[in-house]
Amino acid sequence: MNGNEKPVKVTTGAKKASRFTNLIHKAEDKIISMHDKREMKRDNKIPANNNAINNVNPAPANVNQAQIARSVKPRTPNKPLKKYRYVVMNAMNKKESGTFEAENENEVRNFLMSQDYKVISVKPRASYDIEINDYPKMKAKDLAFSLTQLSTYIKSGIPLVDSVKILEKQSTKQSNKKAFRRLVYELLNGESLSNAMAKQHRVFPPLLINMVKTAELTGDLPTILDDMADYYTSIDKTKKQMISAMTYPIVILTVAFGVLVFMLTYLVPQFATLFEQNNAKLPGITLFVLGVSGFVQKYYILLLIIISAFIITFVCLYKNVPVFKKGVQVVLMHIPIIKNLIIYNEVAVFTKTFASLLNHGVFITDSMEVLSKVTNNEVYKQIINNSLTNLGKGDSISESFRGQWAFPVVAYEMLVTGENTGQLGLMMEKVADHFQSLHKTLVDQFKSLMEPAMIIALATIVGVILLSIVVPMFSIYGQIK
After folding, report:
1. Residue 417 covered by a domain
2. Which of 123, 390, 407, 408 has the fewest CB atoms lying closer than 10 Å?
3. Which pLDDT tens digit goes with each residue over 309-362?
């Protein structure tokens, strides 16, 4: 054997070893991949077929925090969805019509037939066929009821798709029925519940979508649905308290405005003619009321245009210009009584939502991102965004809330205590309960205070106008006498 053969043998041996090593690595990768798929199937994340999503199976208990925080991207359709209008006959032999989005007409027909409808017609929507508020946001009370029902169905062993079908059948509101029908369609196409909800992000709130994602990874969907039902029940209760507090003053102000317009445009001009015919001596208050009455009669169209333009402009600016919206909110949050109504409500909602996210294993940074989408108050959005920036720098969450005028000291101290003791979720629950109680008490006090205040205001307006009429009557009576 010459010297040139040795390197060849070494090279050949190295190649064989390398190939053997590669085969080992490929086998290991295949085993890991098969293991991951089995785990994912147990998590109900990769259905073996389109019907596998119907079953909700518990996942392993050792799901780590990274999995919980990770967001699952929705399925990207191969083709753009087209809009169709359909007419069907339901099980009660009653016609129903609606709209649906799918890849083609046959897909709409097949889906409707699978839902036990008799299809009469399916046509592409015309360009002029426009629905106002096509996907309205689902109300808190509807969410609370639907989530409770869905949790009950799943606990009783009904598959997820069938449970959502029942929700769609029992819904009386067409908007909710349409939303649930869309969920069924997406689930049958292999989407997870969270992704199906995310595709209707204008209907379902971001908090619910993120919590459902967490439930899918932890395998505890019914429990989280129950928690979300309690959460939205609480939100609806708080909202009703605010509406109840504002209903009485709004009604009284509306009645007062109507009475004022009637007296200025009809009653006062009648007496003005009488005063003029009798050459009555008019006091200053009467001259003022007559002047206002004449101005309203002469320029009422212009006044209506100005008031309407002001309201429309204000609403548009408030909805579309964050700086303007924040300015209005800051002003309202510095008015006595009203400021506490707003602050107590915002803090209660913030802490309750934060506690719910933390108690279900969502990271603080992910929780803050969800909270920034939940609140409509620009002041609190800025505080939350600042907290995200500080968390990125390694600071504690309490640093962002230190010295904030919109965040009460009690809530801040409880936040610090929760951080220091590792019981942040529990502390936030206690803060939420405390400020919900304060808010309810303040609403009751506000209602009690507004009733006499509105009566006094209405009596003052009517009294001034009547006084302006009665005083000249004495002058006329003296002249006749």
Report:
1. yes
2. 123
3. 999 999 999 999 999 999 999 999 999 888 998 999 999 989 998 998 888 888
Last-in-domain residue among 234, 249, 276:
234
What is the model's pLDDT at position 70?
37
Which are the contacts of 99, defined by CB distance < 8 A and separation ≥ 6? 83, 84, 85, 86, 125, 131, 134, 178
**Are the CB atoms for 219 and 58 separated by under 8 Å?**
yes
Give the pLDDT score at 239.
Answer: 85
Alpha carbons 259 and 247: distance in angstroms, whole number:
18
Count of CB atoms situated within 10 Å of the CB of 182: 20
* Last residue within a domain, chosen from 211, 234, 257: 234
- What pTM, to 2 d.p., does this model score? 0.69
- Is residue 152 in a domain? yes
Do 306 and 349 reside in the same domain of the chain? Answer: yes
Cβ atoms of 350 and 375 closer than 8 Å: yes
Three-class secondary structure of residue 141 per DSSP? helix
Evaluate whether residue 418 is within a structural domain: yes
pLDDT at 91: 79
Question: Helices marked H in 263-283 — which ranges?
Answer: 268-277
Q: Is the domain of 317 the same as that of 457?
A: yes
Burial of 235 (0-12, 13-18, 19+ CB in 10 A): buried
Q: Are residues 356 and 438 located together in one domain of the fold?
A: yes
Domain residue limits at 86: 82-124
Nearest to 117 by CA among 131, 97, 146: 97
